[in-house]
Amino acid sequence: MAMDIGTIRGLGTVVVMVAFVGVLLWAYSGKRKARFDADALLPFADEPNSLSRAEHELASGSNNQ
């Protein structure tokens, strides 16, 4: 059985599609939600004195009453 270029490209497409679906299932799995939520806060981890939103508004004077 000789494989022509169309068959090889078709198999490559199927392999890439299966890999893509695998990555989607991995990324949206409920078991990883806690880790992804924690990783989303990593850019803010090195801020020693992070202010809450209310404290930030008071410090900047944008709380006009």
Write the layout of secondary structure elements.
Layout: H1 5-27, H2 33-40, H3 53-60
Pfam family, one: FixQ
Keywords: Membrane, Transmembrane, Transmembrane helix
Transmembrane segments: 6-28
Strand residue content? under 5%
- Helical region count? 3
Shape annotation: rod-shaped
Mean pLDDT: 83
Q: How many angstroms separate the termini?
A: 81 Å
DSSP strand count:
0
- In helices, the fraction of residues equals 55-70%
Query: How big is the Rg?
Result: 24 Å
Query: What letter string, H or E per element, gives the SSE order?
Result: HHH
Into how many domains do the coordinates divide?
1
Biggest beta-sheet profile: none
Structural class: mainly alpha
Instruction: Pick out the low-confidence regions.
Output: none
